[in-house]
Each structure stands twice: as C-alpha cells, then as structure tokens.
C-alpha cells in the first residue's frame, strides 16, 4: 500500500514538472515571437514610402524601444498595455546591445493612438535619458520629457523641440504612422521573459550595458536596427 502511494506521488510530481516545463517552453516561444514581431514592425515602418523615422534621428539615438500591438484598456485617453523590447548603443557606440524585454502600462496617450492595437516606437535621444532607462522601472513624461517625433526620411534633427526632448515617440495604427504624445506610462523590465530569452538570470541594466551578449533569437532585430540606424545608410 505504501509503495503504491509513493509511486502515485512520483507520477503526480512528474506530471506537474512536465507541465511546468511545457509552460516555460511556450513562454520562451512567445518571447522569441515578440522579438520577431518587433523586428517586422520596425522594418515596415522604415520602408513605408515618404514616412518612417528620419534616418538622421536614428543615427543619433542612444536607445530604441519597440512595442508591437499595444492594447488599449480605457476610453478616449485610455490606459494601454503592451510588451516589447528595448536596446541601447553598445560599447562601440555603433551597434546595439542585446534587447531587454519590457512592458508598458498605464498612462495617457494622445488621440492619434486609436482604439485598436497600436505599434509604438520610442527613441531615447541623449545620455541622460539612456541612463534613466537603465532603471528597472521608468515613467514616460515623468522621469523624462517625451515629444511627438517628426516623420519623413529626409527630416533633419535640428529643431529645439526634437533635440532637447529626452525621448521621441511614434505610433502606427491602421497603417497611419505619426508622432505620439505619451504621459505617465510606466516602462518596466520583464525579468521573466529576459530569463527565458537569455537562458539565465540576467539583469536589465546588465543587458543594456552590452554585458549579456546577443541571444540568437535577437540577431535579426539587431541586424535590422544596424541597417537603418547607420549614419551611412
């Protein structure tokens, strides 16, 4: 009888462990797919005729965050929620670090962000803004000023508004790409997804300082960012 109970407990334990392993594998797959989706969104934005983020701004950006398919949780000026990636310039100041997975929550978004799923891109334009993004939690419009970014490949980063804002924001919804107004949204690291992506416990700051390397799942993202942000592109 006792032996039967032990065997039953072992079977139950094995079932639970297998279920957890399957769940972990599924979450890791979702994290990788989110990176692929971020890559696709950024590529489509940059290839849009007469639109896109000015290359001059991209070449000057210290960090880039991409949040694909951000969902709305309120009305008119409603709070939103989404997951995406954040990467900063590497030590060479030419390429990009491996991405840290992030979540954006709460806050108010301008009317140009409609009711459907919206893609969001943030450019961090100075060293101070990049340093503040190293925090595991960061408030847009609170810890750093956010301005709607200019649109158009040939636009130059010369105006005071664009050059003095720590962060420039862009949104795309229903095929319409424009600068975005954001206030009070919180950007925070997703430590669980980072663990799944890098296969070990790794900190948000460590990733953005380029100390964690670039995981295979993010190689396409980094190649795409390098292509469009090069000052020679």
Q: In the residues, how many domains can be counted?
A: 1
Q: Total helix count?
A: 7
Low-confidence stretches: 9-23
- Strand pairing plus helix content: what structural class? alpha+beta
What is the H-and-E element order?
A: HHEEEEEHEEHEEEEHHH
Which oligomeric form is depicted? single chain
Secondary structure: number of strands: 11
Radius of gyration: 20 Å
Give the amount of beta strand, in percent.
15-25%
The outline comes out as globular
Mean pLDDT over all positions: 81
Descriptive overview:
It is a single chain. The protein has helices spanning 2-47, 55-60, 127-133, 160-164, 191-198, 204-208, 219-229, and strands at residues 63-72, 80-88, 100-106, 108-109, 118-124, 137-139, 146-148, 167-173, 176-179, 182-183, 186-189. With 233 residues, the protein is an alpha+beta fold. It has one domain. The strands form 2 sheets. Strands 1, 2, 3, 5, 6, 7, 8, 9 and 11 form a 9-stranded mixed β-sheet that branches. β7, α4 and β8 form a beta-alpha-beta unit. α1 packs across α5 and α1 runs parallel beside α7. The chain is globular and about 40 Å long. It starts with a helix and ends with a helix.
Brief write-up:
This protein is α+β, with helices and mostly antiparallel strands.
Descriptive terms for the model:
alpha+beta, 233 residues
Write the layout of secondary structure elements.
Layout: H1 2-47, H2 55-60, E1 63-72, E2 80-88, E3 100-106, E4 108-109, E5 118-124, H3 127-133, E6 137-139, E7 146-148, H4 160-164, E8 167-173, E9 176-179, E10 182-183, E11 186-189, H5 191-198, H6 204-208, H7 219-229
Parallel strand pairs: 7-8
Antiparallel strand pairs: 1-2, 1-5, 2-3, 3-11, 4-10, 5-8, 6-11, 8-9
Helix pairs in contact: 1-5, 1-7
């Amino acid at each position: 009888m006792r032996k039967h109970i032990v065997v039953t407990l072992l079977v139950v334990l094995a079932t639970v462990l297998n279920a957890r392993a399957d769940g972990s594998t599924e979450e890791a797959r979702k994290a990788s797919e989110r990176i692929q989706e971020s890559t696709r969104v950024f590529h489509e934005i940059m290839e849009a005729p007469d639109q896109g983020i000015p290359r001059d701004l991209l070449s000057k950006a210290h960090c880039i965050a991409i949040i694909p398919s951000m969902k709305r949780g309120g009305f008119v000026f409603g709070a939103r929620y989404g997951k995406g990636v954040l990467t900063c310039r590497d030590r060479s100041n030419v390429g990009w670090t491996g991405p840290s997975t992030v979540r954006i929550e709460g806050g108010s978004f301008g009317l140009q962000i409609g009711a459907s799923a919206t893609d969001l891109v943030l450019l961090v334009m100075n060293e101070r803004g990049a340093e503040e993004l190293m925090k595991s939690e960061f408030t847009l419009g609170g810890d750093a000023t956010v301005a709607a970014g200019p649109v158009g490949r040939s636009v130059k980063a010369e105006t005071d508004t664009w050059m003095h804002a720590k962060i420039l924001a862009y949104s795309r919804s229903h095929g319409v790409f424009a600068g975005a107004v954001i206030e009070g949204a919180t950007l925070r690291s997703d430590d669980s997804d980072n663990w799944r992506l890098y296969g070990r416990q790794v900190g948000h700051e460590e990733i953005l300082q380029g100390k964690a390397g670039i995981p295979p799942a993010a190689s396409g993202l980094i190649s795409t960012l390098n292509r469009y942000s090069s000052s020679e592109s």
